Amino acid sequence: MDWIFALVDFIIHIDVHLDQIIRNYGAWTYTLLFLIIFAETGFVVTPFLPGDSLLFAAGAFAARGSLHLATLFVALSIAAVVGNIVNYSIGHFLAPRAERGLRFVKHEHLERTHAFYEKYGGITIVITRFMPIVRTFAPFVAGLGAMSYHRFMADNLFGGVLWVGLFVFAGYFFGNIPVVADNFTLVIMAIVVISVLPPIVEYLRQRGRKTPEADS
Asked: Are the beta carbons of 46 and 85 closer than 8 angstroms?
């Protein structure tokens, strides 16, 4: 359980930890950020890694001159896009076994992601970029058979660059405004809460629809 508390602390105080990482590792920080974004989008077993908050914080440090904005944007965009490709490929590889169940994947997460595909179709890959946990499962479900590879790649490229760009540049332009910088922890918590609200609301709506059917 200690790792959970450590992860929560890292996310909530991400500005403090990222500052320490930059001081200790210098240019290697780009590699570390790349690997975190890649893993968060590339593997269904790591949806708990920071995404939105990390991008925003990284953009804020770029505004301070601690990180190079263009390098940050390009590197993390590549990480987001390649991560989704890996996730799609894993889903495609495991598709024949999916009907028998996958031990390492929570069934409710798959159901929730399937619900998004049913409602939004192909654009799910773009929409779920802004929804923690669901964005990790969306490319995996696409690989299981929800979407053709060519359509997936088009939405993957657009969604990945849009997601990274919005949060990195938001951090760059707004992260160091005094009221934001002085309340950075609260801003990060607000980003996390706002990010998780859409999938929670959608999940509750889906459960509400199923309940009457079960009662009848």
From this structure: no
Joined together, the tokens standing for residue 128 give 């779920």
Q: CB neighbours (10 Å) of residue 161?
A: 18
Q: Give pLDDT tens digits for 7-46.
A: 788 888 888 999 999 999 999 999 999 999 999 999 988 8
Q: What is the pTM of this model?
A: 0.85
Are residues 37 and 83 in contact, defined by beta-carbon separation less than 8 angstroms? Answer: yes
Q: For the chain, what's the residue count?
A: 216
Mean residue pLDDT across the chain? 85
What region, left, alpha or beta, does residue 132 occupy, with left being phi > 0 and alpha being psi -120 to 50 degrees? beta
Give DSSP secondary structure letters for 140-193.
HHIIIIIS-HHHHHHHHHHHHHHHHHHHHHHHHHHTTSHHHHTTHHHHHHHHHH
Q: At what angle do helices 52-63 and 69-98 cross, to 10 degrees?
A: 170
Amino acid letter, 64: R
